[in-house]
């Protein structure tokens, strides 16, 4: 059974360290295609600063031109929601480091002041993907 949809199989050792990170960025500025690619690369480099983490499983969602107010103003701002899907916690030091890295990335690529960027970290224990053989991935089953 293919877990990747590419005819590749995960070995047991790789399965044990599989944690699906997702970075969701909402901002009131426009993100042109070239800037989106630049930001994607910067965020992946930042994520890989966490030991053993690689871009392979990283998903990045960018929602630009959002109606957004921060401190009562609609000047350039961003909300970054960083989710780790799986039973895993990267720890406070890595969260602090990633918050700073993500703020730097958005500030440098999109020109948003770091004081107008908010980063939230969430651990999501219930998750899954197509062909996932692990029933725990979708959370607890409802009783009939």
From TrEMBL:
Report the superkingdom from the record: Bacteria
The record's top EC class is: isomerase
EC code: 5.3.2.1, 5.3.3.12
Q: Might you report a single GO cellular component term?
A: extracellular space
The protein's predominant localisation is secreted
Protein localization: Secreted
Q: Name one GO molecular function term.
A: cytokine activity
- The entry's protein name is L-dopachrome isomerase
């Amino acid at each position: 059974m293919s877990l990747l949809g590419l005819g590749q199989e995960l070995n047991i050792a790789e399965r044990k360290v599989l944690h699906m990170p997702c970075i969701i960025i909402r901002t009131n500025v426009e993100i042109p295609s070239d800037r989106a690619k630049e930001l994607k690369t910067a965020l992946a480099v930042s994520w890989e600063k966490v030991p053993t983490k690689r871009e392979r499983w990283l998903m990045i969602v960018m929602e630009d031109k959002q109606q957004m107010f921060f401190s009562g103003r609609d000047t350039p701002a961003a909300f970054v929601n960083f989710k780790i899907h799986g039973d895993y916690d990267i720890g406070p030091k890595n969260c602090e480091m990633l918050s700073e890295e993500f703020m730097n990335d958005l500030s440098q690529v999109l020109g948003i002041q770091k004081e107008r960027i908010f980063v939230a970290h969430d651990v999501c224990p219930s998750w899954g993907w197509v062909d996932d053989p692990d029933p725990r991935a979708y959370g607890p089953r409802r009783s009939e």
